[in-house]
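Question thread 4412

I'm putting together a teaching handout and wanted feedback from people who do this every day. The idea is simple: show students a protein as raw sequence, then show them the structure tokens that encode its fold, then repeat with a second protein so they can compare. Below is the first pair exactly as I plan to print it.
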Amino acid sequence: MSRARELGNLGRGEALYVDNSTNNVGVGSTSPSSKLDVRGTAAVSIGAGVTIDGVAGVLTATSFVGDGALIRNIPANRVGGATSVGFNDGIGAYWGAQEDLEIIHDGSNSYIRDKVTGSLILSANAFYLKNAAENETGISWAQDGGVDLLHDNTSRISTSPTGGVVAGILTATTNVKVGDHIALDHAAAGGTVTATHFSGNITGTAATFTTVSVAGTITHEDVTNIDSVGIVTGRAGLRATAGGIEITAGIATFKSGVDLQFEGNAAGVTSAYWDSSADTLKLLDSTQLRLGDGGDLSIYHDGENSTIKNVSGGGVLTLKNEDNAKLQLMTQNSYAVEIKTNAEDAIICNANGSVELYYDTAKKLETTTAGVVITGICTAQVPNAPQNSQGSSYTLVKSDAGKHVYSSNSIECPANVFAAGDLITIYNNSGSNKTITQGTSLTMYLSDGEGNSGTRTLKQRCVCTVLYTSTTEAVISGGGLE
């Protein structure tokens, strides 16, 4: 009785309500809309580790278990809280509808990538690029200030409101002659030389140049920018660390004995190079030659297999020889030639063996030493002989080869019109006999086993066939011939 009274009190106070029609349970609600509908401002606690605050919309727990694949709409300022967010090797963090921005560590290296269109923008009032120990700076920048490039934590190149400054030694080992005008500021600290033109030799421990224009030859050890109308010679080589090398006119020529080397993403690792000794451009394993505006055609070797691939959607890969020569697909030794659609076999040519044709991965035709083996139904298409209808006397023409002439009058078979193998069928569509004339210079044999030749009569409603064995010889056969 006491238990029933307690349950009654719960019901009267609307603390707990059960809807018998839906089996929904309400706490603080007499019209629960779900299996458990909790109303009011209080939080729900599950044990000591989980709290659900329906007002603030916060789920608090000591830990979460799972891969997190279905967690959505977490505010950016709520990830991590007082602790860190950790990702295993090879697991990235992504931003953007198409996972445009990626931050990932592959176990050896760390990457920040903008993988789609657009730019990767780093914004700050001040910016420093440091080593892992954070005790050396490579690049520094401050808002409304300059950019410094450092060597071993010492600034070597700095931008300024008027240009840039190189801190160190800039030496010209021979004469530098630039135009006719020179401006010297001998009172400046360190002996700075500023000039629009130079003629003669420049000797000093340091020099800063805005623009150098050379009409002759410049020989240098370390020059930041060179604009020459003549020949620039670098005895130890030429290096562009930023901006690249641009040739706007003329021809870039690499002389005999010079190799051209291309490095890939990894510093110091060669991806492709020109071997002058072999007159060969070599692309190393997994280095791709990409052709087309979007890099649609890819040619590469992965260390084991060679691939020519059209990577554009819906495009056609065509191998075409427009000359009067063969187009061959050939392998060495005992390897087969295979043509596939995706991963399905289409044609397999086995060395010293069979040729196999497939339909949806199933082999349908195979050549053997004895002939051909067909799996399934072999259907032969019956040839069609188009009609040429004639109502008056008619002489056969070249286009009648392979046709049937539907005629109600006489027909002449000419010489020097048809080639060996041309076949014409003639039907007498009349109620009287019609003449099939042997044309001038033509020998038209009757297929009667007697060797007779000449003009023939085709009876009413009968069919005959004329087979040319050469330009001047033919054989006529059929029912109703006289």
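The second pair follows. I'd like the answer to focus on this one:
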Amino acid sequence: MFKTEDNFIKRIKKGIEKNKNFSEYLYFNLPEKIFIILFTPIVLIACIIKLLSFFINIQVGVFERTARIGHFVADLNLLIKENLNKKNKIILIALDGDPPNNEVYELFKQKIFFIPKWVINPFIVLNYSKYFNFKKHLVNFNYHTGYDYSDLDNITYKFNDQKGFEYFNKLGIDLKKNKFVCIYARDQNYIKNLNNFQNFDHSEFRNADINNYKTTAQYLEAEGYYVFRFGKNMENKISFSSDKIIDYASFHQNDYLDVFLSKNCEFFIGNGSGAESISRIFDKPILTTNFTPIGVSLQKNEKYFCIFKKLFCNIEKKFLSIDEISQKHLFFEYDGAAYQKKNITVVENSEDEILEATKEFIMYLNGSFKENVENSLFRDKCFKILNHEISKDKNMDSESQNNLRYAGIRNKQIKPLKLVASNYFLHKNKYLI
């Protein structure tokens, strides 16, 4: 029986808002029973999948953040980690666009099945029907890349390094005998080149000036490291290139070398963006500089080391402590408009803060770093803030839950904080504590 005209119009409006594929278009623009008749072969296959669930759980899903390298790498790696040892489970994934890095895509294909989106879409649309509940067989993606999965087993991906060593040998750089580090400073150009018609101006507060990493790059060069300026489609070339400081992003970048450098570097210096995500899946040490918001950085593994952007309140004419950052609801805030609305200036790390953090990070990796009292106090304060975020509302809305997931908290349980920050940074900016 046909729906009432009013209900049908509502469904069409919903379809216009949600239409991502032809299957959705048909579902929202045809009477439901006619849709099911047209999709009889799909319905039959879906019934078989449901029957097989007594023996094996088959799940399907379309990954909807393919364009963003951070989400693509970290979210799918997490999905693989969570399901790696589940023998009675098969996951079939489609991407909503071209992979941002084809080499990483090839790595993931070693562990998970990818099939065309047009094959999976009809099964997802079936879940809309009141006659057919398919929710159990849909993949639940975690789109929060700050989530702490360090307690899950690491994944070993097969990757041939030889081409990378040969490429740099031709440039006179022997990376088998020399240590190297990747440095990345986020800018807006990569996102502008995504061509997905979205406005990402709200994320500009996360950007950093590559020139503030000059002193650090030169220090590492003097210590015998090669330094590779990492990135893709960057706005500017670096002005401090040398024989051992290579502007890889401007002159050599490709998908294969992105993986090669990320996998083989001694450590990666980034600022909490997608560029460092490839190093993360290879469990490389990461120094996160210019990180904001603070709350998202707290639950990383033992190979992370942090310094943060500072928040200056233009009304009160002072830098904010972490308690004040929390009180102004900026502890987890990822929207730059919120900072503007509250008249807050987000201030980058200085050259000396980045340099000293790098020196301490090398000591940390060598086992000779000793935390100062500020580090312990800072961690304790952050722990109290996280407890407050959980306890203030037992029935948290979805936004609050997402914020906590970004902080690495699952099921409202706070693990001991693993954050280690730079002694120099915390001592210099004592107002934070």
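Top answer:
Good format. For the second protein you could add a caption like this: Residues 299 and 417 are 6 Å apart (CA to CA). The longest strand covers residues 57-63.
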